[in-house]
Structures are given as structure tokens and as C-alpha cells.
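Project standup — Tuesday

K.O.: blocked on the structure for the chain from last sprint. Re-posting the sequence here as requested.
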Amino acid sequence: MRGIFILHNVEYYYTRGSVKIPALRGIDLTVDHGDFVALMGSNGSGKTTLAYLLNAILKPSRGRVFSCGCPTDEKDKILEIRGRVGLVMQNPDSQIVGPTVEDDIAFGLENLGVKREKMIRIVTEVMDRLHLSHLAGREPHLLSQGEKQRLALAGVLAMEPQAIISDEATSYLDPAGRRDVLDYLVGLNREKGVTLIHITHKLEEALLAKRVLVLREGNLIFDGSPGKLLREEALLRDMGWSLPPLIRLAKLLREKGIPVPPTVLSPKELVEAICP
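H.V.: unblocked you, prediction finished:
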């Protein structure tokens, strides 16, 4: 099977009494192994529902979802899917289960029967990378919201999944913490080929991806490169998204006659365009 995630005509309905409320409508989608996808949309557009379908937390009301080659509607495949597809939820309290930071990160590894020596190495590396080492013995309920978010991410990373779905995992972090976590996720994607689906409201974060998906009222209304999205001015206006400062600067330079390509998305690319 070509893609790591494949959706065939997927619909999902929430039921409120006798009323069916559509969350996703007729989604056909393939995400390739090693891809980096940003998933955007307003609140209630279906982003989290889609994440839960990919991780087999939810089953489609109609159509089929395949994650890592496994159909998510087959019960005997669910544990395999969740071992391969890590999900960092919006609310970190939903997935923190250990009595201490160190124990929580090790929880999934213990369930997989990972040998203690290897487990200690993995947990130590992950804590160090996410700046949690000084909190190793701390009880999770005593952590700040940002620390809890890093802990939830650490528990997923320790499992070394084939794919990570980050559901606004940077939302509780300060700017420095957000950059650090994003750098780490991007590094996993580029250096180790981990497939990354990053759900975000921030256009500047979406520009780091190779591909952007936009949902509106359960419909997939855009699927393309970050550069293509920036050229969709009507869509950006309708969604209420402002251009990041770097992109606004590049646009102003073009209006002043300086030949800055519309494909420029990073400070390095902008410098190279101005000073070749």
C-alpha cells in the first residue's frame, strides 16, 4: 500500500439525540511515508476528528481509513496502529498516566516489553531533548501547562513511531519552547523520515511543512504546497489568516521592484534572493 495514511470517501457524524451532525464529509486523501503535512482550519472544521480517525480512536461513519497499511475498523489492528502512529492531543492531561515524569515517558515502553537498559537510554534522551530532565521525579499534576505539553510529546517520541500526529502540540508553549519543539519534530521528519501531521492555527508553522491541508466545515477545501496556499489570497482572507511578517516583507520588496521570488518562505531564502 503506497501511503502511510489512506482515506477513501470518509465521512464522520457525531450523534446528538436523534440528530446526526457531520464532522467530515467525503474525504479522499493519501499521505505518503515521510511526508510533513500541516493541517489547518477553524475550530469545529474537523481537524481533531481526522486525527482521531488516523489513530483509530474513532471509526469512520462511512468509507475506510488505512493507517500504516492497517484498516482502522478492524479491532485486531488497533494496537498495531497505535504503536506505529503517535498522537499528541490538544489537552496533555488526556494522555498523562504515570506517577512521575520519568515513569510517564516509560509507560508505553514498559507495555511493549522494552528491556530496562534500552528503556532508560530512550527516556533519558527524550527528557534531555525536551528539557524535562530536571523534572524527572516530579508528579505530572505539579507541572505547568507547557511542561505537561512537553511531557505528552515526550511519551509519544519515546515510542519511536513511524508517524506523529501533533494536534496543536505547541499551543501552550512560549515562543522559545514552540520553536524548540517544532525544530525537533522537523528534524525527526527530515533526518529519520518520520511522517508528521501537524495540526495548527498558525500560518507560520504551516509554512514549515511540505504540504498543507485546509478543512472547512468538514470539507477538504485545499491541498497543496505552502507556496501555493500563500497565493490563494481569497482563501486566506476568508479564513482570517494574516501573512507572517517574513512573507509580508517579501511581498513589499517585490512591490518596490526587488526581484524576490514568491516561493521564498524562510529568512535564509530571503537573504539569498536579495544577496545572491
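K.O.: great, moving the ticket to review. Residues 3-242 form a domain with the Rossmann fold fold (CATH 3.40.50.300). The two ends are 43 Å apart (CA to CA).
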